[in-house]
């Protein structure tokens, strides 16, 4: 392409010079012919014709020399001015193809050199802007991917333009499968569509909470913000926070407060009733007074046990509570708890047996908390075993110590097993209160073991008894 351009200039120059030669030739010949006519009378026509031929040859030689010089000059001129222009065109094509590292050579200090410098600066600036835009894009993608909340960007028609990883996980979809779909096809709730329309129309942040029914009930807190100012590019960004666990915690808190209030009110109501009866004159009857005071004492002790269990549960569940891991002799703790509860078992005519494997490695745990676990489990077994025996077995297995508390009691219905370790849950509420239970014992056991990364298992057959078992980490 460069050479064709150069030759065009050269040919044009030759044409111009050739035309000038023909014009000069015609003018000179015409003049010599006129002179020949005037001088025919004194000189021979042949001599004049020879002179004309000589002049023509001389003019032709001059023309040839001039053409050679003109061609060379034209070529040099073409190379001098067209090469930088061609390089500029090639640079523009390279940039268009994405080669941001392309730079033009700078020669001299004329206008073309200044143009090359400007082109190189433009290329550098463009490269910097594109690299910055790419970095911003990667940073945005990283932020969106690391967000715990779901995020969806939609246009003014509610079509999905962008969705992050958390939102995809929330609805079990892939980003490529939902792009361009309406948000209503993803979040099947009419309030979401209305929230987006209201946000786009009012150009204000809107908030709402929705409940999505399905295999798993989900509660979402939605925050929608307007996106874009141009009427043709308006939309909204919707932030979706999964508050399902928060709602469950609020429900548990409400139930817990209601249960605590009920558990506290029951003994307090009883105490208050008997005290009022005594103040109304029953104190004159010594036998009645002693019976009432005995009931008041029993209810006060029950109230004390409830408060103690609540405080224990609060300490165990505290997020900053220290997890003590000290060597504990499990056999010694079992024997100590059995001795404490032996009178209670004997009063009911129950056998309280223990079977401990020896030697037994020490457990990595707090000794006081292990005692609390054993007390709750063995005491529970004694309370709900009307006849027969309660046995405690301890043995080592695979770098763990397993403890098992079995009874021949009334057993637990299968439908009650999933809720057995909930706070204040009782299989038989009347029997539990009569036996002095607070409904917190098994919940305390569960939370203590969970602090040490352990779980408790229960197997039960209605009318035949129950077996509670758990493992303890070995101290090393």
Automatic annotation (TrEMBL):
GO terms for cellular component: plasma membrane. Keywords: ATP-binding, Cell membrane, Kinase, Membrane, Nucleotide-binding, Phosphate transport, Phosphoprotein, Transferase, Transmembrane, Transmembrane helix, Transport, Two-component regulatory system. The keyword Ion transport does not apply. Its EC number is 2.7.13.3. GO terms for molecular function: ATP binding; phosphoprotein phosphatase activity; phosphorelay sensor kinase activity. Pfam families: HAMP (PF00672), HATPase_c (PF02518), HisKA (PF00512), PAS (PF00989). The chain crosses the membrane at residues 6-29. This is Phosphate regulon sensor protein PhoR. It comes from Carboxydocella sporoproducens DSM 16521.
């Amino acid at each position: 392409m460069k050479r064709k351009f150069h030759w065009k200039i050269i040919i044009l120059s030759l044409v111009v010079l050739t035309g000038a030669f023909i014009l000069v030739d015609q003018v000179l010949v015409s003049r010599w012919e006129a002179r020949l006519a005037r001088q025919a009378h004194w000189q021979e026509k042949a001599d004049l014709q020879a002179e004309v031929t000589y002049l023509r040859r001389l003019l032709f030689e001059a023309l040839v020399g001039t053409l050679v010089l003109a061609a060379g000059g034209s070529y040099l001129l073409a190379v001098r001015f067209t090469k930088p222009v061609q390089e500029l065109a090639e640079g523009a094509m390279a940039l268009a193809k994405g080669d941001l590292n392309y730079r033009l050579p700078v020669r001299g200090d004329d206008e073309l050199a200044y143009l090359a410098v400007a082109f190189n600066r433009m290329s550098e600036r463009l490269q910097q802007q594109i690299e910055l835009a790419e970095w911003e894009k990667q940073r945005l993608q990283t932020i969106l991917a690391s967000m715990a909340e779901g995020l969806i960007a939609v246009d003014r028609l509610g079509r999905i333009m962008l969705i992050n990883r958390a939102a995809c996980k929330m609805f079990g979809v892939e980003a490529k499968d939902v792009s361009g779909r309406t948000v209503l096809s993803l979040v099947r709730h009419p309030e979401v569509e209305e929230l987006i329309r209201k946000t786009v129309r009012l150009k204000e942040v809107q908030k709402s909470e929705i409940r999505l029914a399905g295999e798993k009930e989900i509660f979402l807190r939605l925050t929608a913000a307007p996106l874009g100012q141009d009427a043709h590019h308006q939309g909204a960004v919707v932030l979706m926070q999964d508050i399902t666990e928060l709602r469950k915690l609020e429900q548990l808190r409400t139930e817990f407060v209601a249960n605590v209030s009920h558990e506290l009110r029951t003994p307090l109501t009883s105490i208050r009733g008997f005290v009022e009866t005594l103040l109304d004159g029953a104190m004159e009857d010594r036998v009645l007074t002693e019976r009432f005071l005995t009931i008041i004492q029993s209810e006060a002790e029950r109230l004390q046990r409830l408060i103690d269990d609540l405080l224990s549960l609060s300490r165990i569940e505290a997020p900053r509570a220290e997890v003590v891991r000290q060597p504990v002799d499990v056999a010694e703790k079992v024997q100590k708890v059995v001795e404490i509860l032996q009178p209670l078992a004997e009063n009911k005519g129950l056998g309280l047996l223990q079977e401990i494997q020896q030697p037994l490695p020490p457990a990595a745990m707090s000794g006081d908390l292990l005692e609390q676990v054993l007390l709750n489990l063995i005491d529970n077994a004694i309370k709900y075993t009307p006849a027969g025996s309660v046995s405690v077995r301890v043995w080592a297995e695979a770098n763990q110590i397993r403890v098992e508390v079995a009874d021949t009691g009334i057993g637990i219905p299968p439908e009650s097993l999933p809720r057995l370790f909930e706070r204040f849950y009782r299989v038989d509420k009347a029997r539990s209160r009569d036996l002095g239970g607070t409904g917190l014992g098994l919940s305390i056991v569960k939370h203590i073991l969970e602090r040490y990364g352990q779980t408790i298992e229960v197997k039960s057959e209605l009318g035949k008894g129950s077996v509670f078992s758990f493992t303890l980490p070995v101290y090393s």
